[in-house]
Amino acid sequence: MAAPPPASIRTNHRLSSLSSKPKHRPPLSFLYLKSQPFNSSLHLRLHSKPHLLNAISSDLDISLLNPHCPSLKSRLASGETLYGIFLLSFSPTLAEIAGLAGYDYVVVDIEHGPGGITEALQCLRVLASTHTPVILRVPEVSAAWAKKALDLGPQGIMFPNIESVSAAEMAVSYCRFPPRGVRGTAHTIVRASAYGLDDAYVSRCEEELLIMCQVETITGIKEIEAIAAVEGVNVIQTGPLDLSASMGYLWDPGHKKVREMLKEAERRVLDVKGEGRSVYLGGFAMPKDPPEMLKQRGYHMVSGAIDVVMFRQAAVEDVKRFRSAGKNATEEGEEKEDGYYSE
């Protein structure tokens, strides 16, 4: 299999595709719909006449809302190692930069970030414009959070702190419509289905959705093989910070015992995959465990950066550089001035 192109090439292609996209005249059915004032009676008439709604949806370019590109699941199945970034700031600007930079995916973190569904929606919209898949990490394993997250239309969802088979099975059930699950149904109006205009959404959404379960405690790691084998779980995401806390090393995530436990968890997940299960290993890079090392150990999805951490590091270094340069410049300036007058 040919190696994927470098990030710089992917980014240039992404930029060129955005700038050169041909403009299409809106279809007649869309112009008709747009010309009508929105009201509930029109909405009801459309849904009482499926042929009219289907005609409208077939003419619309749904890809403008959720750009059609190879799904994360299909790329993993083809053997790619995907590289992503976590977005904690909920800044649409930083989200757009991340997408244009060429990351394979962006995790919008509702668990630890300050934003909620409304703020996440803005990030999904700008990332759609850069053709970058989004994964939403929800705060807890609950039907309500899963429903609200999935209705926005991300390619993936990440559930935190999965410690048992039953918890993993519940997480999967929250992502599936009845009778296979318990996900609430509003597919005729939510963004995930282009607000009801994408009539193929229901038939493909469960197949394309990437379900990620974070196993990040001692209790969870004891059950990690069984969790990885749960039907519908696509990715086991390790969590070195929570793992270190659960082991009593909150302030030392790089402790030898934590590293050993983490590598044991990695091995056991990869063993499950080696048995023929379609499950992948995902993880976070750490200061002493860079993304390149995770890739070498067999990780299939590597989150190598966090937006607020990148900005923090850049800001601190910028201030240090200025203060250091200012001191040196003053000393050099005094020497030059003395030399000038002594001539």
Q: Main attributes?
A:
2 domains; 343 residues; Pyrv_kinase-like_dom_sf; alpha/beta; TIM Barrel; eight-stranded parallel barrel
Describe this structure in words.
This protein is of the alpha/beta class and 343 residues long. It has 2 domains: 27-60, no CATH class; 66-314, Phosphoenolpyruvate-binding domains (TIM Barrel, Alpha-Beta Barrel). It has 16 helices and 8 strands. The protein has helices at residues 7-19, 28-35, 40-48, 50-59, 72-77, 92-101, 117-129, 143-150, 165-173, 201-208, 218-222, 224-228, 240-246, 256-274, 291-296, 307-342, and strands at residues 82-87, 105-109, 134-137, 156-159, 210-215, 235-238, 280-284, 301-306. An 8-stranded parallel beta barrel has the order 1-2-3-4-5-6-7-8, surrounded by 7 helices. Strand 7, helix 15 (291-296) and strand 8 (301-306) form a beta-alpha-beta unit. The longest helix has 36 residues, at 307-342. The radius of gyration is 24 Å and the shape is globular.
Write the layout of secondary structure elements.
Layout: H1 7-19, H2 28-35, H3 40-48, H4 50-59, H5 72-77, E1 82-87, H6 92-101, E2 105-109, H7 117-129, E3 134-137, H8 143-150, E4 156-159, H9 165-173, H10 201-208, E5 210-215, H11 218-222, H12 224-228, E6 235-238, H13 240-246, H14 256-274, E7 280-284, H15 291-296, E8 301-306, H16 307-342
Parallel strand pairs: 1-2, 1-8, 2-3, 3-4, 4-5, 5-6, 6-7, 7-8
Helix pairs in contact: 2-4, 6-7
